[in-house]
Amino acid sequence: MKTLLVRMIENVDCMEGMKAFPENSIDIVITDPPYFLDKLETSWNSTDVRSNHASKTVGNLPKGMKFDRNQSKRFREYYTEFSKEVFRVLKPGGFFLSFSSARLYHAMATGVEEANFNIRDMLGWIYTQSQVKAFSQNHIINKLKGKTDEEKQKLIEKCEGWRTPQLKPAIEPICLAQKPPQGTFVENFDKYGTGLMYCGDVTKTGDGKFPSNIVTTDEMNEVMDRVFLVSKPNKKEKEGNDHITVKPLELIEHLIRLFSSENAVVLDPFMGSGTTAVAAVNTGRKYKGFEIDKGHYELALKRLERKS
Q1: Exposure string for 246-282, b = 16+ CB within 10 A, e = fewer
Q2: Could you report the per-residue pLDDT of 87-103, keeping only the tens digit for each?
Q3: In this structure, how many other beta carbons lie within 10 angstroms of the beta carbon of residue 202?
Q4: Is the whole-model pTM more than 0.70?
Q5: Which sign does the torsion angle of CA 32, 165, 63, 38 carry?
Q6: Domain annotation for the chain: domains and CATH numbers
């Protein structure tokens, strides 16, 4: 088994990369995996995703919402095997935070639980800026065969105000799981430095409120901001970043501070553009990670150079 660096990102598949890690060697895992949407599978790359127009999926859905009926099953099966490897490398009491989509959270949480993790909670990242995916049926009606123009017009009028069943997304669920601690929480923390949640001033949100399972990076209103607000991503961290699901740096920093100690080893198996690694550096932690896409791997290294 090779000697592991305390700070590293490798351009390899995470399932292969994690095999080199000793058991009980990672303090916390935070990741935003591919959800098997529009071919966002284990072998995906950014060029294929942006150019994909295949339709072996449920029709009449915009990009990012096309899926086949076995999608949830495939995702759960993959995530169960993936979570088993995460379980092996995490220290007892270590936390596993995994971003998901609202539609596939149940499959993710089931896979994580089947790998013997304890599901501690579900966090919700709330945001206001998102694309409306529901759309009217006018263009579909106009293409219908076997109907006259008059019949089409009547159907358009009947469907006025009706759209496809897709609410505007405003929340991204985060599965909070924990590898079972050895002994009591305090005994486990004393031995491994994991298993407890830090609730000091640095992790309080909004107007000094106790951290909750809802976090927002958008200013919403006085009540929400006072209780849940975490700072927005700045322009510098978005510079040159074409990753389609980049997360705000402040959000990841908040989660790292909340669920790990200083000098902890943070693992992100799906590193993307490197947000988790940068957040680890900014919070005084070490990082390890994997990113299979060459372009995003190189972007992550550049972001680490400028730490944003």
Answers
A1: bbbbbbbbbbbbbbbbeebbbbbbbbbbbbbbbbbbb
A2: 999 999 999 999 998 88
A3: 11
A4: yes
A5: positive
A6: 7-128+171-306 (3.40.50.150), 134-167 (no CATH)
